[in-house]
Design goal:
This protein is 44% helix and 10% strand. The protein is α/β, with parallel strands linked by helices. The termini are far apart. The N terminus is likely disordered.
């Protein structure tokens, strides 16, 4: 039995807010193009779930633990990166130090990361555009401009951005910031797509629908960085905002993006202390809210777990314990960047497997997480890239 169950009033309130906040442009795009229709042509979701379940049931606990880890090491040596992925990791995140000079070299690098073409890993990048960009050639408008332009401009920009990401052989973009704030002095303001629930929801929905034609898009940083001032790379920002206020504010852009078909939801290291004192990334309560109230069915992923270590809070000084707690809370994929090296991801996977063997992490929870990750991997393995069919995906001067 879940510790949290959304009341019908709460669920209906969020649904009503989505409808009220989406402009005709955004509403039309999300209604006419739900994820099942806009995602790259490939394997039907039901078939992907069936295939993923079969694959995961044939895995050992160690293999399941590896597939719920998204690792990272620096460098552009394809041979070294391939060797890193041969341990069976479910994903890899490309950072700036992984990006070669040309698109052709990037395609070779992402091909090297794919040990088994029948079940490719999730290859991710933070390509928000503007302040957070990893790839060369992203001259499309970014959030600093888009928040003041008509919603259709967000659709066009993120169609181009999704196309650019897909051309490099990358399948996941951690690129949609669903946080919002009207305070230009805050950490997240320059990256948000709006300054209020309505403007953010419209543009988040548009960015999601546009990207899902090409890649698996991600909403971040749930449940909302705008209400929790501070930089979560260095601390655990907190807010005393309650659940009812959250539903009418921070929740709205995330709900709109989920409705528009986002494949992943990234949990921030943010504490809404009146709802749960734990950071959302480690909070069963927030995972239950996203599943039960917002209806999210995709892959739940942590923000970089290295950021918890950087907070300096002694409660989060053990990276393996953080990873186990993250999976136990409801995450399906743990992300490791800061401080990650060739041995870190294997140690994390081993720690998760050991927790299952010790009974401190339910085997069913790991199995559920692995099935969600493998479902997305299977679905993407059968996808046909649509970026070549996007005549308007070139930046304009």
């Amino acid at each position: 039995m879940s510790r949290y169950r959304a009341g019908a009033a709460g669920a209906l309130a969020v649904a009503a807010l989505i409808g009220a906040c989406l402009s005709p442009v955004a509403s039309a795009s999300t209604t006419a193009s739900p994820a099942a229709e806009t995602a790259p042509a490939g394997i039907d979701r039901a078939d992907a779930v069936e295939r993923a379940t079969e694959l995961v049931q044939g895995m050992s606990v160690t293999e399941r633990a590896s597939t719920v880890v998204m690792g990272h090491v620096a460098g552009t040596d394809g041979t070294a990166l391939r060797a890193y992925m041969e341990s069976g990791l479910g994903g890899f995140i490309l950072m700036g130090a992984n990006i070669p000079a040309s698109e052709a070299e990037l395609q070779s690098l992402t091909a090297a990361l794919t040990v088994d073409p029948a079940l490719p890993p999730l290859i991710a990048v933070d390509q928000e555009g503007g302040l957070v960009s990893r790839l060369h050639g992203d001259d499309f408008p970014a959030s600093t401009v888009l928040k003041g332009l008509p919603v259709a401009e967000t659709t066009a920009a993120f169609a181009g951005r999704g196309s650019l990401v897909a051309r490099g052989g990358i399948t996941v973009n951690f690129g949609t910031v669903a946080d919002y704030t009207a305070d230009p002095g805050t950490f997240i303001h320059g990256r948000g797509l709006g300054t209020d629930p309505t403007s953010a929801a419209e543009r988040v929905a548009a960015a999601t629908s546009a990207q899902e034609q090409f890649v698996a898009s991600t909403l971040k940083h749930f449940p909302g960085h705008g209400a929790a001032p501070g930089d979560s790379h260095r601390a655990i920002p907190s807010t005393s905002m309650g659940l009812e206020e959250w539903r009418s504010s921070e929740a709205v852009p995330f709900a709109a993006g989920i409705y528009a078909g986002a494949s992943l939801l990234m949990y921030g290291h943010l504490a809404y202390t009146s709802i749960d004192p734990l950071p959302a990334s480690l909070s069963p309560v927030w995972h239950e809210i996203a599943r039960d109230e917002l209806g999210f069915e995709g892959v739940a992923v942590t923000d970089d777990l290295g950021m918890l270590l950087s907070s300096g809070d002694p409660a989060y000084a053990d990276p393996i314990a953080n990873g186990v707690a993250a999976i136990a809370a409801g995450n399906d994929l743990v992300l490791m960047i800061a401080g990650s090296d060739a041995a870190t991801a294997s140690a994390m996977a081993a720690g998760i497997a050991a927790a299952v063997d010790a009974g401190t992490l339910p085997a069913e929870r790991l199995e559920e997480a692995a099935i969600r990750v493998v479902t997305l991997r299977v679905k993407l393995s059968g996808a046909t890239a649509q970026w070549a069919l996007c005549p308007d995906c070139e930046p304009v001067d």
